[in-house]
Amino acid sequence: MGTYFSDDIKNLASHLPNLPGVYQYFDNSGKIIYVGKAKDLRKRVLSYFTKIHDNRKTNILVKQIADIKHIVVETEEDALLLENNLIKKYQPKYNVLLKDDKSFPWICVKNEPFPRVMYLRNIVKDGSQYFGPYTSVPMVRTILDVIRHLFPIRNCNLNLSKSNIERKTYQVCLEYQIGNCLGPCQSLQKEDDYNSNILHIKEILKGNLTSVVNHLRLKMNTLAGDYKFEEAEIIKNKISILEHYKSKSTIVSSSITNVDVFSFDEDENNAYINFLRVVDGAIIQSHTLEFKKRLKESKEDLLSLGIIEIRQKFHLTTNEILVPFSFGFQLKDIKVIIPKIGDKFKLLELSQRNVKFYKLERNKELSLRNPTERTDRILNKLKSDLRLDVIPRRIECFDNSNIQGAQPVAACVVFIDGKPAKREYRHFNVKTVDGPNDFATMEEIIYRRYFRVVSEKGQLPDLIIVDGGKGQLTSAVNTLRKLGLYGSIAIIGIAKRLEEIIYPEDPVPLYLDKNSESLRIIQHLRNEAHRFGITFHRNKRSKEFIANELTLIPGIGNKTADTLMKKFKSVAQLKSTSLTEISKEIGIGKANLIVNYFNLKNSTS
Fold first, then answer.
1. Which residue in 81, 212, 93, 108 sits closest to 150, CA to CA?
2. Helices 299-313/76-90 angle, 10° precision
3. Torsion over CA: 508, 509, 511, 516 (sign)
4. CATH of the domain at 593
5. Which of 160, 272, 292, 499 could be disulfide-bonded to 97 (CB atoms 3.0-4.6 Å)?
6. 226: which residues sit within 8 A by CB, 6+ positions away?
7. What is the domain extent for residue 498?
């Protein structure tokens, strides 16, 4: 095996420690081109230089490595955090690209006397407390609206220092007159009372609605016990507002307290991680993160990177997370659960539905925005994956259908620019093959199809797909050779059991990634050919059964039965047809035989 890196680089890798850490690859100009994490630095980095990689981009990366640097850390979690921070800082060419760079809104409780509660886009390190970030501005406004209904707090920007209040520097404003503020600027509301409300507001922002409701309910009962029914009614209304707000959240289970849920999906170019935050049995936050893949990153690496990014972005401190599979790294003081049954499994399923829906919507959005670009990208990828010489804009796929050799038929479906062209579909009655012989059937159908295309100067395909293994493919290739077409049209077979892609002169099959768009197109072609062939076969069997029933009538042969079916289409239609109409087709004698047969059958049934 030839190498495309210097011995110095491999020596650098072999002298790395067997410890957790982060490694950085540099090119000749000294620029970072890749950052990775590892539980064992030496073992991980050496793996880049001891084999030729399946992924073309990885091989290109290795060719460009001119220097390696590393950072040893204490724990695997530290490696995850450092890797994430370095990727965001340097944005290396071959690392995944975080596509979610928008600024999210926060709810801020200001660090000041009589704190204000407001929403901001950016965090200012002034000692204020920030909650969020939230994924939608309407949600932030809803929460602030609930808070202001519950607790009258100021929204002015006055400096309510103790000296300013004592000097009565400010006058109460309209907000006080309409009841939205209790007038702390004039000492009409004491600071202890105001700060008590702020504590409750913080609990609401943390998602701890239950403790606030319980406190208010206790206060309501105390006021009612003191016969202060009007004040108790005000508290009761606040409880109703809180419970209404809580009911808007998706209730999962009262047995699930605080947990974060992460699910994963991917396609050829992108990875998606959905996050659900559950507090007191209700989902209070959801967000989907999108990564642009650069190399053939594993789903474990992508999930771990996404979890770290989301926990940092949303300042999560939850010590229990649900994931669909193990991502191979330990997170300090965090319990990682892969649920299989129960409420937690249903919660994970909900997150997985969210991430799949997000992926579908993103792909649909891209298709609508530029359908030609998407088609070209998919077809170019198919060309690359199948090692074709030309872009397969026209693909034809063949499938045989028979039941123990009876009524053998075949189908040909055509895709143009990756989509079904149903007007181009063709089905074939097999004429020269007796019994169940798929190989001979394939030879006949391929010959008939392309002999006619050549004779009529029609359009030949860029790619032929045969549904079947080596035998069917060899039969098709032999026929193309007879027609002088082999070599000018690419041809492959697809074996159903392991979804193997088979080439005519290559003993080693190709296995495409199960998530690849290329494999999905090939499967779509194969399934469509099977569906089209089975439908034709079923219709043929049905017509033959009807024709056989007519031939049971003494004096009625196959030719007469075929004539009747071509004219009347079905036995039901034939039964309701008059003797005169039937006789026009087959003569009065045979018409009488058929009418008498059906009359006798009806009288005995």
1. 212
2. 80
3. positive
4. 1.10.150.20
5. 292
6. none
7. 386-539
